[in-house]
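Notes from the pairing session

We agreed to fold both candidates in a single pass and log them together. This is the raw record for the first candidate, unedited. Please don't reformat it; downstream parsing expects exactly this layout.

Candidate A
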Amino acid sequence: MTFDVGKKYGNAPAVVLVGRPNVGKSTLFNRLLRTRRAITDPTPGVTRDPVAKDAFIQEKPLRLVDTGGFKLDNNRVDEEGALDILVVEKTLETIKTADLIVLLLEAGVFTAEDEEFIALLRPYQKKLIVAVNKTEGGRREQESFNLLSFGFERLHFISAEHGDGLADLEEAIIGKLDFSRVAESSPSEKEPIRIAILGKPNTGKSTLSNRLVASESSLVSDVPGTTRDVVEGAFTYKNRDFVILDTAGIRRKSKVTENIEYYSVNRAIKAIDDADIVFLLIDAQEGLSDQDKKIAALASDRGRGVVMALNKWDVMPETKNIFEAMRDRIHFFFGKMEYAPIVPVSAKTGFGADKLLDAAIRLYGQLATQIDTGRLNQALERWLEESPPPQGPQTRFKVKYAVQVSSRPVKFIFFVSRIHAVTDSYISYLRNKMRKDLGFKEIPVEIEIRSSRAPKKSL
């Protein structure tokens, strides 16, 4: 199965950056996006998965794809060698679906890998642009003209790091693309539901991502830490558009030693901020770990909906009530997230994928709910009657009124007479009543206590 670059702007064309490792593809990718999206590092082979992102170049929408580096030496029998083979295969598959290929070479450095890659690209000459990188200030331009002997129409001399020659390259990219299809496509009426797949390394995140997107956009390997960048894919389910963010596995801080993995973990955590909902993938055979708890708490603190997906359910013993027992165990040891739905799945077979997406649609509806102020304060009156605030000399306070200030994430402000008298237990009481009565049963709800005479208290 080839990698579908997941065009978001209807039928926007896809531009794929290719080349051997460490020629500056990810730097060019970030430069064209005008943001730091892909991880860049001097270590060859940092990018493994194709990383796709929507971009506007000269006000034209397109899909920009950064790929793993092409390596000639694929005879190694260790784990890294096996991953190198997967990276090359994925890069070649991505090329097939591209509307335009930008081959990046390095000024003054031409290797056997470059030569073999050029040979593999010959069938795609009509949709190929060649850029020679690291030519800041005219460095090594003259000797790079020898590359024209391979039959290229033109060379574009650039410096991805400094931005030299980028305007010329962007103009060439736009000039080679057909944007007539974009005008024919109509944007979705609803925003896509953005889902980040998080969890410990090797729990099946990339397998689930590929299953949902119905492609092989993420590399899948038994080697923990295969995914480094956040890999984005798109699909439709029940007439709803989804965007999936496949992330690097998050290990305990004490085990994060490699610089590249450090950036990958930070990027995975940042994906929480880019998502509406987090699928927390838990190895059903291992059960909930302390690291899983930290990831769930991190997502909850940011107001994201969390679905706990018990993966590898296909290899679990067929014992009666095993799911109920595992669910109750999770609730017992992780009461803070008792509201979050738990779904048994198998990323490998597809079991439970529909229930996982149904939960995502349900949680998104709750996250997007906006409660009218009048209805909210009518409910507040009932809650105060059912359980009035303490009436002691030091603990007495009045709840004057409440307003909802945001959805996605859901946040409310309660105005009170004496902010320091409000206890955490009473805030928990209000939050539980809101979940039960206002339709926020499965999502985090932030409550801020505010008084005009004192600083705010947020929990």
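Candidate B (folded immediately after A)
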Amino acid sequence: MDTEPVAKPGRGLPRWIPFFGRAARAPTVAVIRLAGVIAAGGRLRGSLNMAAIAPLLERAFALKRVKAVALQINSPGGAPAQTSLLFQRIRALADEKKIPVLAFIEDAAASGGYWLACAADEIYADRNSIVGSIGVIYAGFGLDQAIAKLGVERRLHTAGEKKSILDPFLPEKPDDVARLAGLQQEIHARFKELVRLRRGDRIKGDDDILFSGEFWTGQRAFDLGLIDGFGEMTSVLKARFGPDVRLRPVSAPRSVFDLVRRGEVGVAYSGSSGFGTSFADGVLAAVEARLWWNRLGL
């Protein structure tokens, strides 16, 4: 068949009939990348949260001729509330639009990262991916002895006897630890319930193993029924929807800070408090994010 542009009489614009005909029929899969620590907006730059991701989800599920939405997940977890909100939004859109969701785990989908993966109807990973960590963690510092050595007096005034729970500048109280443990158990119970609901009879491991907070390689996660198979996203989607499948990345415009962090623009010293403060905040955020990844040995 002739694929050269054919000019229509009276018009100067060519028509690529074979190209556009095939493209119009090709199935489309929207791709959303969920990479980073899950945290409320403003706490960690580049973090995953409802404010940043919800608009992308809306656009992805609204694409014309979209056959599926693919989630590229690379997250060590983070804030339980933001994780739950994102999960609920993904499932609400998937159920409303009757569009399947497939998750593809890269380096890790641990803790809240795996919670997000459970929003998918099918989960794929690499055999070397880190998967699991179905638990709840709290980490902090005790600085009461440090400030005592420095001769610093802590002055704290509250209305409500539980208002200063787990204050890092005060000695740890058994009642505070017990209250924290209760909160963690409550969130952990919801996490376990969600995994059971989403994975159903695909789960093959015992509860004391699955929900201990341990994490595994992709191979072991497959044996436990936490994922459905192995494969890189493009290959899996081509096998599922055909070699002509169109992958449509859905992403937000990148900020100047993101470009600096990725090394795409140079960093110049600025005496203004605006850029200097933003850059310092970015460094601190990067350290905090690094701690999340360090838990997984990554």
